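Bench log. Compound arrived from synthesis this morning; before running ITC I wanted a structural hypothesis for how threonylcarbamoyladenylate sits in the protein. Inputs:
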Amino acid sequence: MDTKYIEVDKNVDNLNTYPQIIDAAKRLKQNEVVAFPTETVYGLGGNAKSDDAVRKIFEAKGRPSDNPLIIHISELEQIHEFVDAVPEKARTLMKTFWPGPLTIIFQKKEGVLSEIATAGLSTVAIRMPEHPVALALIQASGLPIAAPSANRSGRPSPTTAEHVWEDLNGRVSAIVDAGPTGIGVESTVLDCTGELPQILRPGGVTKEQIEAEIGIVKVDPALTNQEEAPKSPGMKYTHYAPDAPLFLVKGGREYIQQLISDKKNEGFRVGVLTTEENRAYYTSDFVQVCGRRSQLETVASGLYDALRSFNKADVEIIFSEVFENKGVGVAIMNRLLKAAGHKVITEA
Ligand code: TXA
Ligand code: MG
């Protein structure tokens, strides 16, 4: 398949009548799949009402069929097409965080969306992205858009159109490029179908922010205990891993440098994932800086690009610093632990 590369300036007015957006929307209406930017990561969109379109999403990504997709909307009212009752807490959160990086799980109205999109579940995940291009495209298509992250399954999510191109060129109808995404980690997935809302995936909206609006929420025990089965199907799959084995190191810079030096002495090509504050400290074959630890948002923003960079650098082993499990740091550590396959080295 010829993949069309469509560049869009996200700052122009009236995006939804922009020829490039009309072109991409037309492809969606024809049940083709199109990658597009959101404020979190690039998504791979398709008509959420069409089995045909949704099948193409799963195929292009090589995604397991038991992993449901998030349905993206551009206006609040759209939700009533897919959901019978909006719980009060969900309503409060929608008012505060939509558009934005919060996905909410509702009981689903039957018979409206493709059963393949929701993996046959009785629930549906919905979000309104905060990105002018995403909103314009959804609006121009007139459709609910099912969209997982636009990476090949198992790879880090894409935060630039180049990442999408690396993974999906030739496998999708078009890629809409509007520059790098901002937040860099995916949306927070919050299940609002139970008595007490529960975070199934930490993401762009923090637990602290949610609790400030609706009071205490639960966190899926599987997020902190590997013995538990996660409630979000997608959370059980390995994800984000670079080709070389990645180890997270709970320890000081001296300790990390010692690990690097030992491996170098054994003849390995060693990579290290660090931050601006510590960059000058390490001597290694490849030093990848990812934001400032004093501003965790900058770490989130660059995380997936950093993980992808190690493959190009051809390293054989990677050591990474760890981050505070607070605010967006919870999402960062969740992704890093997955990328590392939970391999953690702790300084004695
Ligand atoms: O930021 C994001 O959320 C990005 C952008 C493109 O919007 N999308 C994204 O989609 O990360 P994806 O498919 O990579 O991750 C969706 C997650 C998966 O873990 C999936 O299992 C979960 O949401 N999910 C979807 N529907 C669900 C449901 N009904 N119940 C529980 N988990 C659900
Ligand atoms: Mg994903």
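What the model suggests: The chain has two domains: 4-223, 246-346. The longest helix spans residues 296-313.
ITC booked for Thursday regardless.
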